[in-house]
Write a structure and sequence with these properties.
- InterPro entries: APAF1_C (IPR041452), APAF1_CARD_dom (IPR037963), Apaf_helical (IPR042197), CARD (IPR001315), DEATH-like_dom_sf (IPR011029), NB-ARC (IPR002182), P-loop_NTPase (IPR027417), WD40/YVTN_repeat-like_dom_sf (IPR015943).
- It comes from Pongo abelii.
- Keywords: Apoptosis, Calcium, Repeat, WD repeat.
- There is one protein chain.
- The chain is of the alpha+beta class.
- Among the domains are: about 1-105, Death Domain, Fas (Orthogonal Bundle); about 105-285, 3-Layer(aba) Sandwich (Rossmann fold), CATH 3.40.50.300; about 290-355, Helical domain of apoptotic protease-activating factors (Helicase, Ruva Protein, domain 3, Orthogonal Bundle); about 620-815, Methylamine Dehydrogenase, Chain H.
- The chain contains 32 helices and 60 strands.
- Strands 2-3-4-1-5 form a five-stranded parallel β-sheet, sandwiched between helices.
- Strand 47 and strand 48 (about 1025-1030) form a beta hairpin.
- It is elongated and about 135 Å long.
- The N and C termini lie far apart (about 85 Å).
Amino acid sequence: MDAKARNCLLQHREALEKDIKTSYIMDHMISDGFLTISEEEKVRNEPTQQQRAAMLIKMILKKDNDSYISFYNALLHEGYKDLAALLHDGIPVVSSSSGKDSVSGITSYVRTVLCEGGVPQRPVVFVTRKKLVNAIQQKLSKLKGEPGWVTIHGMAGCGKSVLAAEAVRDHSLLEGCFPGGVHWVSVGKQDKSGLLMKLQNLCTRLDQDESFSQRLPLNIEEAKDRLRILMLRKHPRSLLILDDVWDSWVLKAFDNQCQILLTTRDKSVTDSVMGPKYVVPVESSLGKEKGLEILSLFVNMKKADLPEQAHSIIKECKGSPLVVSLIGALLRDFPNRWEYYLKQLQNKQFKRIRKSSSYDYEALDEAMSISVEMLREDIKDYYTDLSILQKDVKVPTKVLCILWDMETEEVEDILQEFVNKSLLFCDRNGKSFRYYLHDLQVDFLTEKNCSQLQDLHKKIITQFQRYHQSHTLSPDQEDCMYWYNFLAYHMASAKMHKELCALMFSLDWIKAKTELVGPAHLIHEFVEYRHILDEKDCAVSENFQEFLSLNGHLLGRQPFPNIVQLGLCEPETSEVYQQAKLQAKQEVDNGMLYLEWINKKNITNLSRLVVRPHTDAVYHACFSEDGQRIASCGADKTLQVFKAETGEKLLEIKAHEDEVLCCAFSTDDRFIATCSVDKKVKIWNSMTGELVHTYDEHSEQVNCCHFTNSSHHLLLATGSSDCFLKLWDLNQKECRNTMFGHTNSVNHCRFSPDDKLLASCSADGTLKLWDVTSANERKSINVKQFFLNSEDPQEDMEVIVKCCSWSADGARIMVAAKNKIFLWNIDSRSKVADCRGHLSWVHGVMFSPDGSSFLTSSDDQTIRLWETKKVCKNSAVMLKQEVDVVFQENEVMVLAVDHIKRLQLINGKTGQIDYLTEAQVSCCCLSPHLQYIAFGDENGAIEILELVNNRIFQSRFQHKKTVWHIQFTADEKTLISSSDDSEIQVWNWQLDKYIFLRGHQETVKDFRLLKNSRLLSWSFDGTVKVWNIITGNTEKDFVCHQGTVLSCDISHDATKFSSTSADKTAKIWNVSNGELLHLCAPLSEEGAATHGGWVTDLCFSPDGKMLISAGGYIKWWNVVTGESSQTFYTNGTNLKKIHVSPDFKTYVTVDNLGILYILQTLE
């Protein structure tokens, strides 16, 4: 680099480092070829904007004069005119020998050669495509002065001619390879007389002094001969450029030992000529950034200031250089027509997108139509068949083999002709070929063949049905994914409504498709084709959509759940249930195990949609202002955007370097804000995912962010673990206000609907309301006091208020604390409702814009969409998990305590409830003949109640701590109990005698009565013991696990016993010698435990062949093989105990949401 340029850069280094954003500047320098990708990565790795700028300048200082010029031009392009002015005096003076213009990079020698050769000038708006230009120049260099062909090929409007002209706009290339000059011929679509005229004109240009002949050649052969002589004798080592060649016979006229560069849509045109051949394919898209750059130059705006429609135009035309230039030129004349031209594109009105320019075709459809007309007659219909393909879809060869009823080789030959003519694109992935159309080609075909589309769709369905009658659709077939994704689309487009309903209302289809692609696409199809499906049966359509929406989080997991078992949990009136029952009965006959949830009619589903978009905890989810989209973020460091109705993914952004804690849509839905553990706040374009702003003023992790509800003056509020709230104006670089008052981390904040108040909640247990204008505190609510009467242990009373959300009228505010969600009336501060459904901590709640639904997000990796009316009207009884069950003949009697501490007896078959008494119950049990009830409390007391007259007639205080387990013996005379201490008490309550079983070193987890006065107990000390309850002696002692033993059971023949532990495993042991027989819960591939958590209970079947376990859900195991026979997914999780009938056909449990499950094996 010149000393002057270097000194200028060093002199203004500080100003440059302070102001420039490196991202777009580096894009320009990479395009110019003066910065490498690895250098860009090195700059990006710097932590701050200023350090990134410093690193870039350091790199430029080590480079040459051209790098300085590229940097200068990049500053001008990106609107840093003041900074560019500082560097202007340092622009290197290029040596006079080359005559180089420092800004354009073109020498006077190049300009003269190109002008004489008729090479077109650069377009008014020009964006460099350095990589492609370099590729063409490399291929031209390979000719080394010898005859040969370099072909630039691509679809209509991809910029081939501009690239060809740009490739020869290079001093060293012309001087070194083509000193004889460059001669440009615009060929186009010609007949023989037209070609003769082109040749005559060329000969005249090459022989201006008429030294070879004063007469024009009279035919093509004579012209070819004249051209050969002129090129060899008068213009040796020159380059002939043939632009827009359509036919191979045209090239034969130029096949005379010349060096030729040609542009074409058909790469096979050179097949008929001799000599070395090189090909440069041109992709059909400029890429988003280049496309925006062209538009910005046309309308004379900075790229960052372009309206939203600019991004949509680039997306709609897939960055086609022709379309971007056509629209850019039109916008230069009519700058307010962004929306109009976008609509023309979306509505495929190509005739209205016209331009007078050097391009040979007046409108886009005309350019594409010419290509199709040039196809052979016998293959034109096959191209028409491609009208049914969707945008961005790569179709396997096998699909078209079925459509055309042909062998693979025949189909590939036809498709290759389309590929050669740039009418189709081919993606070669290993052995298989996949074909796709450019979006503009799809639009052109659908518009051109609109009257035939229904029949074309019907044709593919008919062919599919015909083929797959004899060939079942299996996942290992290359066409399988295509049919699962697009069969419904083709049926709907073919108006085959009956077939579509039969497909969508089939549990087999639902099972096969969700197993391959998950539930979101299916839910989307139910929404998309609702108008058709409702014609058949509105209720059935709702049944299937609700089934998929509420089980989506299960259907997207591995191993894939049994969909028939999930279907059996649906209401009995549901079509899903009826199909599932039919299938289950057939499979039961073949030895399969299925469960009926016999008391499910008492359960109301409050959620409307459950999705699982993240791979880790979900910290926040929010609605867009129009209610159509949901954004979510979490521990996996990503921001996800998906459709609110179906859960279909729209955007996935790696948003931060650490966990993303909160996200928020702006009122106009243009932006999404995110904040993170990395202390940064970022603003993103909600449609494109582009980063707009980064704020970095908080000193600790930023926990929450929220925009004002009015877009008139957009503000963003953020709250952090530094105890402060900050207000940001998006038009300013620094924070507007900082709010002080919380004494611990600020977890969440929300503006009131009128933007006058800001609500914030904190780990200090309070909810505060702030005045937005003055930034002063207005009101404070202590949420912790509402937990003081909770059933949770008092020592665990730290209450962190996680989040809050206002209702639309500003009268109510919703708050989440622990795993509960409360709705408060602001004036009266009274609780309206609460709801449970998540399996772990709830991190976020938010109302939809109209208040009809709300979102909750949780550590359980799910986002739930709730209906507000259902939640507020819900009066469901929630049971505590300590229940006891007695099975009598055909009866199931359940003793339970509900959330308001009522002791109740429930008839499992009829659902009848008898309320017995109110008490501080920690555990309870029924006597085998239903004469007595015993219950223990937190003070160590045990009471016995007589069922006949509901009278307590025995009580004693023997335990010093909370009684956790209690059970009658078969004769009802003795009561066995265990507490937080390490002993078990055997109390003959009729004789008032006691025996203490002492031997465990830590708290007894639970116990189970066996035959012959024996008792099995297990403890936190990792041991399992067998006791004689008459003598109090230990008869067997097993050390089974490293950690706590959670549950145990002995088989009926007393030869095997099972144990489960906090290590998430279940083991089966030999009773006589303590040998391990099976390990039932190995870790799955993803590392998640097979039981979804700790295994908390086990029970053997009477024949010892089956084992049931409870944990995150319920599983049935084959004891002989150790394999799972069935899984039942409860709504909640953390099941504590499973009660099993003597015949091993009825099972009872309660989940952590307080829902009672009475399950029966299907026969």
